[in-house]
Amino acid sequence: MLSAESLKQIDIELAKYPADQRRSAIMGALRIAQTEKGWLAPETIEFVADYIGITPAQASEVATFSNMYDLDPVGK
With b meaning 16 or more CB within 10 Å and e meaning fewer, what string describes 36-74? Predict the structure, then answer.
């Protein structure tokens, strides 16, 4: 779903936190996914959540709370 380069960037975000606190990397991971895709589709949020090891609901909570994430396609 995401390119190898984006996954590598997410791995860098994950490395910043202890293994038991992987959830802390979700904001950075969602930003990386949005940069690649242009917006965050539900499938993208679910993919990132699975990759990080949290539930899709936890990732959706972050994505819908912050206005820095686009949940619909945006114009140029």
Answer: ebeebbeebbbbbbebbebebeebbebbeeeeebeeeee
